[in-house]
Amino acid sequence: MAIQPIRLFGDPVLRSAAVPVTDFDKELRTLVADLTETMLDAPGAGLAAPQIGVGLRVFTWYVDGQTGHLVNPSLRLSEDLQDGPEGCLSLPELSYDCKRALSVVAHGFDMHGEPVTIEGSALLARAIQHETDHLDGVLFIDRLDREARRAAMKQIRESDWFGAATTVKVSPHRTNGLGL
């Protein structure tokens, strides 16, 4: 297990769709451990593999004192909505109200390839939707209304971290040859 550098807004990996996991092996278990350790160190409520430069459909979460992970997720969203503050480890110090489904049923696999179903509402539903968006190359600011997105982009451009040269360690995890 190792804490990995978190990619920041502007890194192309954050806008690329991740590929499905096909090998449920030791390398995947190491990736899940690295994601979990990095997320808890940050600290954050979730972290997707692309955020550490790995283009695979895997994410972790930490909500209400519980950690979990999901591989190759597919979501069924409620029609009821919630609106609340959302942030992202790849967009430091940003928080904006974002509309999300109030509850979610997520199907996928654990790191051993066993099928799992996760049902969640409120913050867990928000985290699962947010991290699944990362796997599709979508950031939470993409879901903001025009005025909030404009304010977020202004805040990003004025931040100390935006556009700064970052040293990114090459991830030890396989990326299915995509260089992500």
Gist of the model:
Keywords: Hydrolase, Iron, Metal-binding, Protein biosynthesis. The chain is α+β, with helices and mostly antiparallel strands and about 180 residues long. About 25% of the residues lie in helices and about 30% in strands.
Beta-sheet strand percentage?
Answer: 25-35%
Shape: globular
DSSP helix fraction? 10-25%
> What's the SSE pattern?
HEEEEEEEHH
Q: What order do the strands of the largest sheet run in, or round the barrel if closed?
A: 1-2-3-6-7
Number of domains: 1
Alpha carbon gyration radius: 15 Å
Overall average residue pLDDT = 90
Main β-sheet description: 5 strands, antiparallel
Structural class call reads alpha+beta
Oligomer: single chain
What would CATH call the architecture?
Alpha-Beta Complex
Number of strands: 7
Which helices and strands appear, and what pairs or packs with what?
Blueprint: H1 26-41, E1 46-48, E2 58-63, E3 66-77, E4 81-88, E5 91-101, E6 103-109, E7 115-121, H2 122-135, H3 146-158
Antiparallel strand pairs: 1-2, 2-3, 3-6, 4-5, 6-7
Overview of the molecule:
The protein is an alpha+beta fold and 180 residues long. It has a single domain (12-158), classed as Peptide deformylase (Peptide Deformylase, Alpha-Beta Complex), CATH 3.90.45. Helix content is 24%, strand content 30%. It contains three helices and seven strands. It has a five-stranded antiparallel sheet with strand order 1-2-3-6-7, with helices on both faces. A two-stranded antiparallel ribbon has the order 4-5. Residues 165-180 have low confidence and may be disordered.
